Amino acid sequence: MVNKIKNLKKLKKIRFHSEGRDQLFYGAVFIILVALLLWFGFTTKIPLIIFLIVFGIAYGIVVNFYRCPIRYFPSEDTDGIVVAPADGKIVVIEEVDENEYFHDKRLMISIFMSPLNVHANWFPVDGKVKLVRHFDGNHHRAWLPKASEENERGDVVITTESGVDILCRQIAGAMARRVVTYAREGEECFIDEHLGFIKLGSRVDVFLPIGSEVCVKMGQATTGDQTVIAKLK
């Protein structure tokens, strides 16, 4: 619990995700420089207005993408609770054969993130990081079933405090081209902490034991670190 409090204090200093600070800075500089050129280079202000509208909207989308909201799960009792690791909507709830780590059937719940969602990812459970793996791969559209196995991805296996192993899989989509995972093997992890980040449309899969209670439905919107998606037995 002490480690969790220390990490949360660090998170309070974050307003925009560190993964996007360079893009936001250089994007702002570009817009300002071009706006100045248009201001002094044309007698009419129509080109400047058009430029500011188009690039202002684009920059606003990028700013939203790189927001890093500070969130706290509303309850201190997180035993058996599985929270949404990302903002987005539920696109898959089904039993699947997981042959990478568990070699048995698992309940898979998938969340699709559009370019308009925040793309920070949270740990879905309290526990200890058992394994971290990164795989290079294709960039199919994130909502396709084959994306879970064929796209670039980052896999994190977490052992909960009650000894249950779950897999959280970050998947790059057709637009997102980079998966960043902060989890490290052997470290304790907690709900409210960031698991990683995916650099526009992408997806996160959570693989749970069969028999887990599903608390969401298809198409439901999720809020990372807030929405309870399942309860472990």
What key attributes describe this structure?
233 residues, alpha+beta, 8-stranded antiparallel β-sheet, 3-stranded antiparallel β-sheet, 4 helices, 14 strands, 24% helix, disordered N terminus
Instruction: Quote the distance from N terminus to C terminus.
Output: 23 Å
Structural class: alpha+beta
Mean pLDDT: 83
Reading side by side through the largest sheet, how are the strands ordered?
Answer: 9-5-6-7-11-3-2-13
Uncertain stretches of 5 or more adjacent residues: 1-14
Helix content: 10-25%
Describe the biggest sheet? 8 strands, antiparallel
Query: How many distinct beta strands?
Result: 14
What is the string of SSEs from the N terminus onward? HHHEEEEEHEEEEEEEEE
- The coarse silhouette is elongated
Q: C-alpha Rg, in Å?
A: 20 Å
User: What oligomeric state is this?
Assistant: single chain
What is the tally of helical segments? 4
Strand content: 25-35%
Give the gist of this structure.
With 233 residues, this protein is an alpha+beta fold. It is 24% helix and 33% strand. The chain has helices at residues 2-11, 21-41, 46-65, 147-150; strands at 81-83, 88-98, 104-113, 120-122, 127-135, 153-160, 165-172, 179-181, 188-189, 194-198, 202-208, 213-214, 221-222, 228-231.
Question: How does this structure look, described?
Answer:
This protein has 4 helices and 14 strands. It has 233 residues and is of the alpha+beta class. The longest helix has 21 residues, at 21-41.
